[in-house]
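Notebook entry, structure prediction.
Reason for the run: the old model in the group folder had no record of what sequence produced it. Starting over properly, with the input documented here first.
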Amino acid sequence: MSDFNQLVVENAAKQFTLEGDIISVQPFGSGHINDTYRVITSINSGISHLLQRINHHVFPNVDGLMHNIEIVTKHLSKKVKVAEGKRVSDHVLTIIPTLEGKLYTKDSQGNYWRMFILIEGTKSYDIVETEVQAAEGGRAFGLFQKQLSDLDASRIVEVLPNFHNIEFRLDNLRKAIALDVCQRVEQIKDKLDFIFSREDRMKTILDLGNKGALPLRITHNDTKFNNVLLDVHDKMQCVIDLDTVMPGYVAYDFGDAIRTIINPVAEDEKDVSKIVLNLSLYKAYAEGYLEEANEFLTTLEKETLVDGAFLLPYMQGVRFLTDYIEGDHYYKTKYDDHNLVRTNTQLKLVEEMEKNEVFMRKVIFDCI
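New structure, fully documented this time:
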C-alpha cells in the first residue's frame, strides 16, 4: 500500500459525489499498481465505494484510460441480465463522478483519483484450484468479449501502445542484445536460440490481423484469474480491472488466461522440472470460454486460440529476458538472476505446450 497520509486520501474521497459524510477511508485489497481504499459513509444504503489512486507512471494517458472504462462499462450495463434483488452495479464496474461531474480528479500533488461502487459479497482467487473455477473464469471472459463484440473498437484508446505486439517486443530484445550493457548475452545464447527459432510461428496472430483476416475487437488484456469476481457459489459475477481494455485480438486474452491458469508453479520457480501442465484446467477454461464466445467468434478466431496460448508465455519470456539483458530496470527483482529465472519458467511453459499441442487443439475443435 502507498505512503499517502490519511488526510490526502480523505481529501481525495471528498471530491466525489457521495451521499452522507465520510466515516472511514481504509486500505483495501492487494493490487500492485494502483492504491485502493474502501470508503464508508454515514448513509446506510448497503453500498460502499472504492477510491483508487491511478498509477500515472504506468498509465500516463489517464484521460484515455478513463474514457475507455466509461465507454465499456456503459455498454456492458446495457447488456447485463440482472437477477431479482440484484443491481447492475453488482455485475459491472460503476464509476462515481466527481463533484464537477468528471470521471476522475487530480490533487495538488499531481495524483489522479477515481471512484467505483464496491461490489460486495464476492471473492476472487489468485490461483485456480478446481475445474469449476476454471470454467467460470472462461465463461466470464467469454461473456465479457461477447457483450463488447458489437462495440466499435475504434472508439477505444490504445492506452499502452504495442502491449501485445510481438514484433515490437522482439525488436526491443534485438536492441538490448546489440547494446549488451551488462555483458550478459554470451551466457544466454540457448535462450535466444529458443526464442528466435520460434519467431515466425509466434507472429501468426499479428500477421493475420495485419492482413485483415482477424477482426480487431475490444479485449481485456490482463486476464489473470483474480480479475474475475465470483459469487458465494463460485459462479462468475463480474470482470474487473479494466485499465488495460484496448483494441486487440481475442486470442491474446485467451492465451494470457491459459498462461496463468495451467502452470502449477510460481512465475519465478527455479526448478522448471516442476512445470507440468494442468490440462484439465485448460480444458475446463476452454469449454467455459467457448460456451459464451462460440456464437460471435469467426472460425479463424477459434482456430487461433491455441496460437494465443503459445504466444503469451513466449512474449512474457521475451520481456523478462529483455529486461535481464538491460540490467533489470523494468520488473522488480529480488536477486541478480531473477528475470532469467522468470524467463526460464515461461519458455519451459511454451515447451510443455508444444508437447501437448495435439490435445490442446482437439479440445478447441471439440468445443466448436
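Summary: The longest strand covers residues 35-41.
The old model has been moved to the deprecated folder.
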